[in-house]
Amino acid sequence: xxxxxxxxxxxxxxxxxxxxxxxxxxxxxxxxxxxxxxxxxxxxxxxxxxxxxxxxxxxxxxxxxxxxxxxxxxx
Length: 75
Prior knowledge:
Blueprint: H1 2-33, H2 43-67
Helix pairs in contact: 1-2
């Protein structure tokens, strides 16, 4: 139980730090580049776009595998 708690704490901490960096990074880059506020992409939008892209890639890969699957019985 202690081991699982320790592992979950580490994973949660690492994930929280990663998400914080991802959400703050666009603001910092926007300030450094001098782009207007309307041209900047927010951290939440970036996470949504990446999530949708990864899910789409998984679905395409699944469809390709499904198309070439011959099954266990070859007739």
